[in-house]
Amino acid sequence: MNEQDFVAVLWAAAALRAPCVGEKGRGPNLPSLPFQLLCFRPPERKRFYQNVSISQGEGGFEINLDHRKLKTPQAKLFTVPSEALAIAVATEWDSQKDTIKFYTMHLTTLCNTALDNPTQRNKGQLIRAAVKFLETDTLCFRVEEPAALAELQKKEWDPIVAWAEKRYNVAIGSSTSIMGPNIPASTRDIFISHLASYNMWALQGIEYVITQLKSLILSMGLIDRHITVEKAVLLSRLEEEYQIQRWGNVEWAHDYDLCELRARAAAGTLFVHLCSESSTVKHKLLQD
Amino acid sequence: MAALGSPLQTLRGLLRELRHVSGCAYRDTAAYRHVLAAFRAHRVTSEKLCRAQQELHFQAATYLCLLRSVRQHQALHREYHGRGERSPEEVAGLVGFRLPQQPGGKG
């Protein structure tokens, strides 16, 4: 059955159906049109557990919702290598009030992606996808007018690009043309070999941060702890912030997007750091 | 290094966010215990420039940013985007119309 037949069936079903206005227990009201039916959102899952706790299993740390063990969307057991990450995920599940809002649980989503690998990419493919973003890196695309924005871009973005060039010993540059900067192959190779030193989980996190911030340079700045999340998000949204200063802030759009981007970037960065660290505490004996 | 502010501010902010998450019982949560233990463990060190301390502070600041922005995002969503669509009756009522009553149902 192709898509048109599918729509035709839905239209027929909608025409035969009584209008569902006033139907109880449905959540948001649904006018009976096929377009709306195609966009039908299933009712939200209620919180079905009282307590969230973590336990240590063979593969790592697991999350327990009451007595049930948390599983990934592909029904694998949810195990994370780091205790701090497990506690953070447990806090996410614990913070759900009446309904479970999966779109607020960024760390859980990242862990599920790392465990399931739904796009089935191997390490090389992930690294190539990450480094490919350098060709379309936000920080490298400059405007010529308005002059104030060009000046702001130069003032805010140049130091970060210079830091990345110095830190990784590469040449990146910036460009005002529509084609973007010309990234030499040596630069790409250096980034590929640098990213190869991270494990698979950390790479999922890095690729996520790059996709959210639309910039490889800003993501490396975050991973290397050179800039804070707030600053990285500000630099990523520099043109929007400039327009907001000029024309005013719209809370339900600008602040909404800002908070969401901050949450995603923070989750990605935290995920990378928690997956790529290993800490040991050595107690020194006091000698008097 | 990132401009982070003082560790005390970050810790206070984190505890405040954890209180928002868990309510009155926030002191019993694993997150609270872990955060306090981590901050205590990295406080005393004989090194002058402690890299682990800065790493922990950055991680704490990142987690604080995550908790805070998730909470603000949810508040904005509830206020502006949470109401769903209006029913056809409400839409008609916006401009002063009423929907026709058809006792036999729609054609």
TrEMBL record, chain A:
UniProt topology in membrane: Peripheral membrane protein
GO cellular component: mitochondrial inner membrane
A Pfam family hit: ATP12
Gene3D superfamilies documented for this protein: ATP12 ATPase (1.10.3580.10), ATP12-like (3.30.2180.10)
Gene Ontology biological process terms in this record: mitochondrial proton-transporting ATP synthase complex assembly
UniProt cross-references to PANTHER family, sorted A to Z: ATP SYNTHASE MITOCHONDRIAL F1 COMPLEX ASSEMBLY FACTOR 2, ATP SYNTHASE MITOCHONDRIAL F1 COMPLEX ASSEMBLY FACTOR 2/ATP12 PROTEIN, MITOCHONDRIAL PRECURSOR
Protein name, as recorded: ATP synthase mitochondrial F1 complex assembly factor 2
UniProtKB/TrEMBL annotation, chain B:
Entry GO CC: mitochondrion
Matching InterPro entries: FMC1_homologue (IPR037667)
CDD domains linked to this entry: Complex1_LYR_FMC1 (cd20271)
Family: Belongs to the FMC1 family.
Task performed by this protein: Plays a role in the assembly/stability of the mitochondrial membrane ATP synthase (F(1)F(0) ATP synthase or Complex V).
Protein's name according to its UniProt entry: Protein FMC1 homolog
